[in-house]
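Sample intake — Apple domain-containing protein
Collected from: Thraustotheca clavata
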Amino acid sequence: MVLERTNGVSGNATAVVQIINDANNTYMCDSNYTCSLPNACSQQFADTDFLGNDIHSISNQTLGSCCNLCSTTSGCSAYTFNSGVCYLKKFGLNAFTSTGSIAGLTSSTCQTAYMNTVFTGNDLTSLSSQSVAECSQACSIMASCVGFGYDSASQTCYFKSSLVQASSDSVIKTIVLNPLCSIAETLSIPFADGEDEKTLKFTIGNNIEIINPYNLTLNLTSAVSGATIGSLNKLVVNVTHDGGVLSWNSTEPAIEGSLVNLTLLRNGANALAVNATISLVSSANYIFTCDSSTSTCAVPPQCSVQYSGINFPGNDLTEIITESAADCCAQCTAYDGCQAYSFETSTSSCYLKSIAANTGWSSDVISGISASQCITMLPNTDFPNYDIGEEPGFTAAQCEQMCNSDSTCAGYRYVPATMECWPKYFVNNGVSTVDGGYFVLKKLPCLNPSIITITIPAHAMVASFMISLPQDQVYTSPYSLTLSMVSATNQATTADSLILPVLDNGISGHFYFTTTSFVVLSNASSIPIPITRAFGSLGSVAVTVISSPSVLFAQGYFNSGITFADEQLNGVLWMTINPSATLLPPQAISLTISGASNNAWIVSPKQCVVTVYDTRLSWPNAPSNLRQINATGSSVAVAWDPPAFTGGLGVTILSYFDMAIYQQPQFHL
């Protein structure tokens, strides 16, 4: 920060700067005009004492040992030293002149508000007021008022002449006006003859307890030796934390049943530790619980997630008596069709439910679900009655939005074919339907996101945590995990959400060509291509095969597929070919398995080659380079280059020419 002297720099001059900051930090400046927060024993005030708030006194001390004692004594924030005796103080309040005494403060933060604290006695008067600010204004103009206690229950402020004896009170906070630590630093800065600028340096304190940004203000209050103060007489510096910029490290899709390591990166400033709070939501509605102490999220063991004070009215299968909510969950797990339960602690009644729905509050009920997934959508299902109203002509998104905006809506039924929407205020006794409609349950506690807090230590640039993905014994459709940063301390810039795809582990099958090469003739109208499914066979899988370009295909290439049924291990894909109007040399067609649905894996060999030979023959072309070899008697021997063969088969061709004199030549093949 530069203080300039303009419009004449002759002669000596002195500027007086007042230092104020909203966080009540105390800055002390040295002779080089470098200002910083004081250390524990640098704030000492000669001929000053603090009245009251004594912890105890210790004799035979020095000023330095007195300060050290306060720094290491729990609850001590101030001290007074006089004639070898050290008086340790809980608060540095009620400063007064005392010749020979030295008062000291150990904290660089000047506390002016004491929450849930009352100072008894020394009352001046009281005032009914709804505003703490109004009480502060009244105290500031009241003789002998050093602070006040504000009772939020009665909205009354009690003005004090001194603040001596503190005790706890849940409805009162005490405000101190102008304590010794809050006296603004006043700094005199001399300018020599011809000197036109001075530089002030501030080392901003790293106080992570101060969450919100605050202002550091420098006021030019006066100038001596004929100098005057210009119009730019105030500099305000906004002070905030900088925890850096957070981002996710890129990651590949995860595999079901694996342990995924996710990394949080920090760029930029790294002096402060940052706590990043992250929410985790599964598109497949898996329930995760997170442990910030171990930096791990996982699907909890069965019956370990329960919701106190939550009830699921309706959809009862049966009622039994159990000893605990855990026993009630065990009964649900063993009961056919039970997906949820509610345990009434006052009666030990356990209600087994066909579905978790109609979330309500009840102080003596503990509820839970038996599965690791939160069931929210039921295909081909309806829950009759309890309609809020029928809404025709709604899209699925509009139907959901309408239910979300109605606090009484417990779920809705939607039929895509007719675009009919039925929101319900109660869900009970579901029935099967065949019209393609589905039912969506809302406001379930298991839908709440999981939360984990990850710490990036000071000066560190990375932190990681683990997600243990569930492993199902049946095929799992692809789903995703969405990780969003809810908040980050120390004003760190949060990252965008990370969407982590989760793929099946391959138990739906590994697909490959059974044979890697075929030789066929062009008179075959279609060719069987066998494909094998190994490793797993759960679920229906559509396999797609594409070819290299060839004139034997009507579209110029082959692109088709075959669907494997659940547990089907072998399949045959028929490839149709169209004979060419002209003779063709052998055609080598490359086939590739290009896709497999439901996260099935494509493994080697995923390519094969089909060679197609043309079965048609034709006369050879006319011979070339005809030449005489020799003549004997009545015969002449000639030779020529073999003609090019235009048929499709790779056969060996022998051609010759017999010629008799005065006879018609004959060709032989």
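Post-analysis note: The longest strand covers residues 95-105.
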